[in-house]
Design goal:
This protein has 196 residues and is of the alpha+beta class. The chain is built from six helices and seven strands. 31% of the residues lie in helices and 30% in strands. Helix 2 runs parallel beside helix 4 and helix 3 crosses helix 4.
């Protein structure tokens, strides 16, 4: 018992290491015409690492309007969700992008309802849109950031990496070759995925 009294203060004061969650800020929605998608740019408040989430046009519109603080021209799915939660006595408290399976992010919304917390799985784009409307934090796990995040150094280096010649415009590139579908945007083997 006496040795436990000596060890207990050490255990309580031990450095637990980095927090398991990383807070993100929604910075922008960028159209990617060649992919017919949009990238929602989430940035770590700790170190500026970017976590891109690729979304369709409808999700991009919802998030972009919320970033601007303006209502959408007509109600979208996230608008409905924003109305349902409080009508059922709930309040959104946070959003977590907490999984990555087969190049697809998974997320959960955290809703406080009376004296208990309800956690519901949601599409990351809907969750981010709800977080913007409710002005609550968006988090991700360190594991998701390690796999899907892109550091500033990696972003700066992307323009410097040699690329395979493509079909090109005006006769440059692979002249005389049949057009090919674009390959998924990824980096070298063993590195983090870029397009998810």
């Amino acid at each position: 018992m006496r040795s436990l009294l000596f060890v207990l203060p050490l255990l309580l004061s031990a450095d637990p290491g980095p927090a398991p969650l990383v807070r993100l800020e929604v910075k922008d929605v960028v159209p990617l015409k060649e992919l017919q998608q949009h990238a929602v740019v989430l940035v770590s408040k700790e170190d500026g690492t970017v976590l891109p989430i690729f979304v369709d046009e409808t999700a991009a519109v919802a998030i972009a309007f919320r970033l601007m603080g303006k209502p959408t021209p007509h109600p979208l799915a996230p608008d409905l969700l924003d109305r349902i939660v409080p009508s059922l006595g709930g309040r959104l408290t946070e959003v977590r992008i907490d999984g990555l399976e087969n190049h697809v992010y998974r997320s959960h919304v955290y809703i406080q309802q009376a004296n208990h917390q309800v956690v519901i799985e949601a599409r990351p784009s809907d969750a981010v849109s709800m977080a913007l409307a409710a002005q609550v934090p968006v988090y991700t796990t360190r594991q998701v950031m390690a796999v899907g995040g892109i550091t500033r150094a990696e972003i700066d280096g992307m323009g410097k990496e040699p690329r395979e010649p493509g079909p090109g415009v005006g006769g440059s590139g692979g002249a005389g070759t049949a057009p090919q579908a674009p390959a998924p945007a990824t980096k070298a083997p063993g590195s983090k995925p870029v397009q998810l």
